[in-house]
Design a protein that fits this description.
four-stranded mixed β-sheet; 7 helices; globular
Amino acid sequence: MAITKITNLVNPEVMADMISATLPKKIKFSPIAKIDRTLVGRPGDTITVPKYAYIGDAADVAEGEAIDTSLLTASTTTVKVKKAGKAVELTDESLLSGYGDPAGESTRQIAMAIAAKVDDDCLEALYTSKLVYDGSASVIGYEGIVKADAIFGDESDEAKAKVIYIHPDQEQTIRLDPNFMDKNKYGVELVMNGAIGKVAGMEVKKSKKVKKEGSTWMNPIVILASEDPNEAPEADNFATEDAAVTIYMKRDVAVESDRDILKKTTVISADEHYGVALSNESKVVVAKFKA
């Protein structure tokens, strides 16, 4: 006779694969973030991120003259690897009752919990941008967003794809703006999943994680395109095509389980080692609007 054992219901390896597969999809900021896995398996707990300055434009060289050399310089920023984890404890009764899927639900919620933490860190990285537009005297709207967009100094021939994150409490204001293009009304094509429409050429996406400081909303505006907004790299010292934010994965999700033989319960825990950095400051403007 087949006997159902707890080990049949809780398989850490299977759970780890499930969480690893769903985690990137649950991170709302993954469309604006590059996920870097080059550190997986390497020693150390601090990431040093180089930022190379532009060497300058080429110059005319007369016949027989030597070409001047330029010094390649770089600044660096360090990112500390952190560990985000979550655990649940399940009784044998809940696992063996056949009611619902406690093990599967635990896996789903652990993935959501870790993704939410990575999300928080991505947003905190965006808020470190030095490009800020102070429109706190007015509520969010077309005119203010256009002025905030100008902070980028974008000189591209074609406008870069951008997204502005708003709090749900700002949704009514932005939808009532005569220049807002609702995706359900106008059928506009959108790059970001979950975007509600466009205004001033940028997509609008809601997140309850958008901060309010006092009576001011802090709305991040992010360039989604890979190219630098300044065709003259010396304008912002970014010669690379880095994404606005990079998530450095140190170790894939690890899931473990342990038994309490006295309580007859099973503990399932999972953790992720990673670091988050604002890897291209020229692609983020924090716009302040009246709450």
